[in-house]
Amino acid sequence: MAADSTPRMVDGYEIVRYRPEHKSQVAKLQTHLWTSEPKFATRYLEWKYEENPYANEPVIYLALQGSKLVGMRGFYQSKWELGSPRQTHAILVADDAVIVPSHRNRRLSTVIMRAAFEDLAKSGHEYVLNLSGSPVTVVSSLAMGWKSAGPLEPISLERGLNLARKGRRVLKRISFVHRYAESRFLRTPAERDPFAHLDRMSSRKEADAISIEREPRPDAMAELVSHLGYDGRIRHVRDREFLAWRFRDPLSVYRFLYWGTSPMRGYLVLKCERSGAHHPTRVRIVDLEGTSASVRAGLLDAAIDLGRFQELFAWAATLSDETRKYLLSTRGFKPAELDLRARGCPCVLVKRVSTQPEGSNWMLGNRRLTALADWDMRMLYTMAG
Question: What is the DSSP string of 316-328?
Answer without folding.
Answer: -TTS-HHIIIIII
